[in-house]
Amino acid sequence: MNTGGSLLLKEVATRANASLRCRMSIAAGLALLGGPALAAGNEPARLRVAGALVDDVVQSLLPVVLPESVTGAGAADSARPVVVLTETRYCGAGDKGAGRFRAVIRHGGSGAGSPPILPERDACRPSLADLAKRASAVPGPVEGLVIADLEATWKPWELKVALVRSVALGSPKSGRMPEFEDKRGLWTITTSDLRIANHAGEPIILHAAPSFAAAEIDIAVLLGERGPLAASRKSVPAALVGEANLSADVPVAFANQVLRRLTATQPLAISVDRDVVDLDKLSITQEAGGLTIQGDASPRSVRETAHVNIFVDGDDLRVASVRAQGQGDDCAGLGGVARIACNLRGSARGVVAEALGATLTDRYQGQLVRELAGQQDYRFNVGEQILEVRGDLLRLGSGAGSLSALARFRSGPTAKP
C-alpha cells in the first residue's frame, strides 16, 4: 500500500475508538434530534424525525472503524488494515418493528475522496447484488468494498445493531476480506443516561426510546427515572409536511422543566431597545386560545424587578401583549418616614413595570414566537469530533396540554475540538 494510503488508514484508526465512538455517534444522534428535550414523570416528549435527517446526521459522524470483534482482527492479525463503515441510508421498518439501514463498508481504507456508492435516493429498493453492479461501474477503487444491510432493534434501554447480509465487490489488495456472518452483532448502544451540557447547572439527562416507521423514526424522550413510557397519551407529533424534517409534541410540563433548568443559576437575557432585560422564574400556563408565559423581568438600567405576563396566541404562536406588575413591599407595619419611603419605592416600581410592559408590547406585539427564538444551534461532542446541528422552526403552536412544532434541521460540519 502506498504511503498516502497508510497515513490515511492511520488517521482513521486513531481518530476513533471503534465501539465507543459508534455508541456515542448513534446515542448523540438520538439526543440531538430531539434537541434539549425533557419530559415530566412518565409523560414523554415525542419527536418525529425524517429519514433524510437521520441520514444527514449519521453520515456526518462517519467514517467509523468497525470493532475487532466484528472483523476478526486481533493480536494475531495486527497487520490487517482497518475495516471502516463509510456510508449509511435509513430504509424504514423491517420485521417486528426493527429499523433497517443500508451501509457501505470498506476494507483497507476510509474511501475519502471516492464517489459515494449508495445513491442519495432509492438506495434501499434495489437488491444488494444490483447495488454491487452499480458500484462496479462507479469511478474509483472497489477492491475491499462491501455493501451490507444492517438491522437495529430496541428494548429498554438498548439499541442493538446487527449485520444482516452483505455482498463483497472484490478481494482487497492488502489481504483477505473479513468474514461477515448474518445477524452478527455490531454494537449495543445505550439510549439511556444521554447527557446534554447545560451552562446553567447540572447536565440534562435523557432517556430515548426510538421506534421505526417507513420514512421516519419516532422518538419518545423521558427525563429522570427510566419508568415505562406512558401509554395513555394520545397526542403525536404533526405529520412532516413541506420543508419540515422534524416535528415535536412537547407537554407543557416538559417546557416548564426546560425553563427551570435554563434559569437554574442565571436568568435569560433579552435585548429591549438599548437596555438588557433579565428574565427569571419563567413558566408556561396553557389557556383557551393560547399560552401565558410568566416570570420576573429585571431591566439592567434600573435594577428593579417586575412580574410579567406575556400572552401568545394563534395557530402559529404570536405575541399578543405583555403586562408587567411592580413587586411592592408590605409597608403596613412601618411608621413615619419608613412607610413614606416604602410607598415611594412601590410607586416607582409600578411606574417602571408599566413602562416595561408598554415597551415590551410595542417591541414584540404581533411577532411570531418562532422568529423571536431564532436559529436553533446544537453542538455535541462525539468521540474526538464536534457535531453541529442547526435549523429553524417553521411553525409553533399549542393545544391539548402541549406545544407542537415543525422544524427544518441540517447537520453542519464536523471538526476536532
Summarize the structure.
The protein has helices at 3-15, 18-34, 51-60, 68-71, 128-137, 252-262, 336-364, 369-373, and strands at residues 45-50, 64-65, 83-93, 99-107, 145-155, 158-168, 184-190, 194-196, 204-212, 216-223, 246-251, 268-272, 275-287, 290-299, 306-313, 318-326, 376-382, 385-399, 402-415. With 417 residues, the protein is α+β, with helices and mostly antiparallel strands.
Write a structural description.
24% of the residues lie in helices and 39% in strands. It is α+β, with helices and mostly antiparallel strands. The protein has two domains: 3-192, no CATH class; 258-372, no CATH class. It has an eight-stranded antiparallel beta sheet with strand order 8-9-10-1-11-19-18-17. The chain has a six-stranded antiparallel beta sheet with strand order 2-3-4-5-6-7. A five-stranded antiparallel beta sheet has the order 12-13-14-15-16. The chain is elongated. The relative contact order is 0.14.
Mean pLDDT: 78
Radius of gyration using CA atoms only? 27 Å
How far apart the termini lie comes to: 31 Å
The structure class reads alpha+beta
Layout: helices, strands, pairs:
Blueprint: H1 3-15, H2 18-34, E1 45-50, H3 51-60, E2 64-65, H4 68-71, E3 83-93, E4 99-107, H5 128-137, E5 145-155, E6 158-168, E7 184-190, E8 194-196, E9 204-212, E10 216-223, E11 246-251, H6 252-262, E12 268-272, E13 275-287, E14 290-299, E15 306-313, E16 318-326, H7 336-364, H8 369-373, E17 376-382, E18 385-399, E19 402-415
Antiparallel strand pairs: 1-10, 1-11, 2-3, 3-4, 4-5, 5-6, 6-7, 8-9, 9-10, 11-19, 12-13, 13-14, 14-15, 15-16, 17-18, 18-19
